[in-house]
User: Fold this.
Amino acid sequence: MPYIDQNGLTWTRSEDLLSITCEDGRKVLGNAEMSDDHLVAVAYYVPEPTKTDAERIAELEAQLAALLSRL
Assistant:
């Protein structure tokens, strides 16, 4: 049975239940235990951008400076 997401796109589960395919061509791999809703959510997931080492160091330096200023 097709799954229709919040954007009105139709998703179809594979017969072996290992993937779901959107009408726009996107395909999400999973396993038989995952719900259609979960697999479609994975398709829309946008991970947070990873910080560079320089950004992490700058944050740590700012935290250290704030802690030292309290002394």
Q: What stands out?
A: Residues 6 and 13 are 17 Å apart (CA to CA). The chain has a mean pLDDT of 95.
